[in-house]
Amino acid sequence: MNTKTxxxxxxxxxxxxxxxxxxxxxxxxxxxxxxxxxxKPRQVIDAMADFYVRDYANIHxxxxxxxxxxxxxxxxxxxxxxxxxxAAHKEEIVFVRGTTEGINLVAQSFGxxxxxxxxxxxxxxxxxxxxxxxxxxxxxxxxxxxxxIPVTDSGAVDLEEYKKLFSPxxxxxxxxxxxxxxxxxxxxxxxxxFAHSMNVPVLVDGAQAAPHMPVDVxxxxxxxxxFSGHKIYGPTGIxxxxxxxxxxxxMPPYQGGGDMIETVAFSKVxxxxxxxxxxxxxxxxxxxxxxxxxxxYMQAIGMENIYAHEQSxxxxxxxxxxxxxxxxxxxxxxxxxGVISFVMDSIxxxxxxxxxxxEGVAVRAGHHCAMPLMxxxxxxxxxxxxxxxxxxxxxxxxxxxxxxxxxxLFA
Length: 411
Ligand code: PMP
Fold this sequence. Notes:
By secondary structure, the protein is α/β, with parallel strands linked by helices. It has helices at about 10-15, 40-55, 65-85, 100-110, 135-140, 160-165, 190-195, 215-220, 245-250, 285-300, 305-320, 350-360, 370-375, 395-410, and strands spanning about 25, 25-30, 30, 95, 120-125, 145-150, 170-175, 200-205, 225-230, 240-245, 260-265, 270, 325-330, 340-345, 360, 365, 380-385.
């Protein structure tokens, strides 16, 4: 990725985020939990409020101007998303509630409709529960077997072991683009190329990649890609499932209801085409509008610039934290997104989290919905600091000072 061009001054973006102008425990907000959910810029909040104030109506149904306008805005956002992840067709963009729903949709519609007992799905040890449990449900429902790619000590997927997991029964590889705990960016293009050489489709969980770096689904060549609006500075309750058109066309609907049908009789229902076939019921219309605003906001800054900004913060933060005696980073593989997980000798991560909270520093302490990964690294939990567009060195300094305080308190 080209990071040589001069970076814009990111301090001017921080003021776009109203919440960061508030106080937390009487101190300026130090928000280091963007991996859980990103704060929202005024542009996204305004786009949603404006939509409710000026353009609101249900979509795809009304024959009146307001509904047509809302429909146009909704469908234009599909095109915005297509361009954002460089999909070939806008019909390949399905609006869902988030990453979790996108993966469940693929497991139930693509998987359950055609797999048999003993068919296999390859996952990795670093998957979020959202990319484990939907496949585990298929294990319970139809006897699918889960195979797991090990993770190295530095926090990378073991590609040699990955290749050994394939068998004639392998039906899917489902892997995260970037780990929400380790930060590791997986080589999803190579992973996909190998799976395709074995005639196996690939789903990429992009929840932690889409906020931080350019994503090109045609270059990766993955069959499915999923991400959540709330992690890319958009609203909660909206996300995207990308699927190659031929696959989506062949998949049965996931949910039934209004808007996903062509004709309905009690004896026979015919379904709408992709992607409407997968968007049953009134969707989160304002959520889609907010998602579009979030993507435009990020694109105005530039995804390459966002990546470079967070890399420079990583380079600032990691040596600083490593200088704290007894602090150990979990996840040192490169490249990685702006996520730093750590543990400290003889202080439980939850205790560190509590001290940090009292200092007004918002981080996540826990298993981060990645229990198998905690087991792999033999830790009960980690403390995780994660970055976004608005994060600056001052946030990292505040984190550092609060860690030193925790160390003094628990020494
Ligand atoms: N996958 C990864 C890698 C994640 O980090 C998350 C959210 N923490 C999810 C999936 C689930 O996303 P959501 O809760 O928005 O569906």
